[in-house]
Amino acid sequence: MSNLQFIFVHGLSGWGSYDRAYARMPYWGMRNGDLMVWLRSQGYSCFAASVAPTGSAWDRACELYGQLAGTQTDYGRCHAEENHHARFGPDFTGRPLIPRWDEDTRLVLLGHSFGGATVRMLAHLLAFGEAKEREDKDCSPLFKGGQEKKVFALITLASPMNGTTAYDMFEDPDFDPASVAVPLWSRVLAKMMSMGTRDGDDGRSKSDWAGYDMHLDNADKLNQEFTTLPSAYYFSVPCRASVADEKGNQVPVKGVEPLFIARGHQIGAYTGTTRGGLVIDESWKENDGLVNTVSAGCPSHAPGKPLDRDNIRPGIWNIFPTVEGDHMWPQGGLLHRHDIRPFYRDLLDLINGLDR
Description:
Layout: E1 4-9, H1 20-24, H2 35-41, E2 45-48, H3 57-69, E3 72-74, H4 77-83, E4 88-91, E5 106-112, H5 115-128, H6 131-134, E6 151-157, H7 165-168, H8 184-195, H9 210-213, H10 216-225, E7 233-237, E8 239-240, E9 242-244, E10 250-252, H11 261-267, E11 272-273, E12 279-280, E13 304-306, E14 317-319, E15 323-324, H12 341-352
Parallel strand pairs: 1-2, 1-5, 5-6, 6-7, 7-14, 8-15, 13-14
Antiparallel strand pairs: 3-4, 9-10, 11-12
Helix pairs in contact: 3-5
């Protein structure tokens, strides 16, 4: 159908095709069946990457590059030393994610949730590399840059591109998340979910984790570093699973995955100011249970506009109409199943029809 390689990257605490869990329950499709298999049956070359569940955008991007290029992960000598972890990670030599990696490779990078930051970081490094890492003559080709033509399109799905207040609200002395009324059972589920997403304690820098990157101030800093590539197409898909109550807060709608009930209530009640001075106003209350809807549209400091299928240009974010679904909707749902195949078929058809 095309020479494009569609690379799907999971979010926080997720898994991909290199992980055993994927065979039992595919991240992409969940209990509805493997979305990759179905899309391949439709003629698209689709692959599910596996990156560190709680790793930083940098580390996950390096791992993704290792999979695509079929080589050992190189986090960079400077990065590894600054963040107190090993320079080299998983080795994908002899078992690449895609069948071809050469000058003609064209990638369509799709990231769900924090997978959005991952694919944006990869696109940035492919294009510009990293000057500090290039001082090492043995550095990964990723850090040398000059590979921007490999990135054809980038799609983020319910991604906290400007951060999520699910983290910031717990550090605001003027807001107590525990004061927000939520069902007791949902609070228990939220605690179980957060146990699986906590930053590890292996001695590495506290800034080298997904949770750090998703604070609003830190996400804004990343957005200032990322450059929108003039030759690549950009799309974002925000989700919403909340509605205003009589107090003016946003509360979860019926049918939200139980895992997100408590956090959805808390995000929907929070306004404030970050440590860096960013204002979290009423527009931040609308959410999908885990990510603020406004954050999943266009990254700060980047050009963007609502999607116009008759006017899609590279170098600018095209924002899809907000999907009425929770944070797990792009995966197909868990307890509340959603048939996402028509959505992805339409999305990939759209990408395939763009000018090359």
